[in-house]
Design a protein that fits this description.
The structure holds 2 protein chains of 2 kinds. Chain A is mainly α. Chain A contains 6 helices and 1 strand, in the order ααβαααα. Chain A has one domain. Chain B has 6 helices and 6 strands, in the order αβαβαββββααα. A 6-stranded antiparallel beta sheet of chain B has the order 1-6-5-4-3-2, with helices on both faces. The termini of chain B are far apart. Classes of the chains: A mainly alpha, B alpha+beta.
């Protein structure tokens, strides 16, 4: 194994540690942001990314004739913008975030390459790291275009992202800083 | 590794800058519906035909087929209505609040949100008097705020003024075609 984090130079282990710490912090804030703007339940995610912010499974298709509804609102309600991502904003979000997600997945995958783990586990872990953003955005688009029920795919993507990071971080920290006696590069 | 760092730098540069509040929505409501003490949200879920109608008129339709007007009243007296309108560009979204008098003319326009990058450009356009030209305009008229301020401002503020013109044009079309 040419690249083994367990026996790498201290500077490389320090770099990987800081990268993981920084990514972990951004993930925590990412989870906070999801809680603020989208939510962690399929119905909340469906409302955010589904058509027009309605409850799931309603108003999927344009009505035959324009429907007008009127309801009283307070000044405070008008001031609170319901965070709803329409198609144009989702195009922009996908364009902006997918490259960054790819770079993050690649950075974590490079760390995976330096871990002393079986080859097939490494392959599975790299697949998980890249599958997470795909699931995340596929879920958003399917929620938008097909059915709010696909919000579950976005949630799966988010959890997969967190899971992938946690597995990589735990193994990397363990192997870099707590080497066991008799460890050697394989 | 070099490629990775380069890709990260490129991705970071492509990122749209954060949203900034230019005017709080509540302040915009107070400005655009002065004296109103009761409010109602009128939501129009547009049919395919009506979506096409507005698209044919101004080359735009609400992305999710919904237009929301906020109506203000003081007792039984109508104070007017307003609509929040988002305009997207490669620098991020701009949100406008367009207020209407009870007689259907534009009362005023406020820019409520922009991004960090766009804020100084928008402020320059506003300081040049961009929104003054919208006051009292009929919804059938074509907004020409950008044309009036462009000689006094730089290129990017001029571009922002064009985007704001476009947002006002979309709002006016929605009002003209669907507000009843």
């Amino acid at each position: 194994m040419l690249y083994d984090l367990r026996h790498s130079d201290l500077r490389i282990r320090w770099l990987v540690t800081l990268l993981l710490a920084t990514l972990g912090t951004s993930y925590l804030f990412g989870a906070w942001m999801v809680g603020l703007y989208a939510g962690f339940t399929p119905s909340k995610v469906g409302e955010t990314y589904g058509p027009s912010g309605e409850a799931p499974m309603t108003m999927q298709m344009p009505p035959d004739s324009t429907i007008v509804t009127e309801r009283p609102v307070s000044m405070a309600e008008m001031g609170e913008e319901q965070h709803h991502v329409d198609k144009n904003l989702l195009v922009q979000d996908t364009h902006v975030h997918m490259p960054m997600y790819a770079v993050i997945a690649a950075a974590l995958a490079v760390i995976v390459l330096g871990l002393a783990i079986p080859r097939n586990v490494g392959l599975a872990l790299i697949a998980l790291l890249f599958a997470a953003p795909w699931l995340d955005f596929a879920g958003m688009w399917l929620t938008k275009l097909v059915s709010p029920g696909f919000a579950i795919v976005t949630l799966a993507g988010g959890w997969a992202m967190g899971l992938g990071y946690t597995i990589v971080a735990v193994i990397a920290f363990w192997q870099m800083w707590l080497p066991r006696k008799g460890d050697s590069a394989s | 590794m070099k490629a990775l760092v380069f890709a990260a730098a490129v991705a970071a540069m492509l990122h749209i800058t954060p949203t900034v509040i230019m005017v709080k929505r509540q302040d915009a409501v107070a400005q655009l519906l002065p004296g109103a003490d009761q409010f109602a949200a009128r939501e129009l879920h547009l049919s395919s035909g009506d979506s096409k109608k507005i698209h044919d008129a101004v080359g735009w339709e609400p992305p999710d087929g919904v237009v929301t007007f906020y109506i203000g009243k003081n007792g039984d007296r109508s104070v007017g209505s307003l609509i929040f309108m988002r305009v997207d560009c490669q620098h991020g979204p701009i949100e406008l609040a367009i207020g209407y008098e009870p007689n259907g003319t534009v009362r005023a326009v406020e820019v409520t949100k922009a991004t960090v990058e766009m804020k100084p450009w928008i402020l320059e356009a506003l300081h040049a008097g961009l929104t003054d030209s919208y006051r009292g305009m009929a919804t059938t008229a074509s907004p020409s705020g950008a044309e009036k301020v462009k000689p006094k401002i730089a290129a990017m503020p001029g571009y922002m003024a064009e985007l704001i013109d476009k947002g006002v044009m979309h709002a006016n079309a929605a009002y003209r075609l669907f507000y009843r």
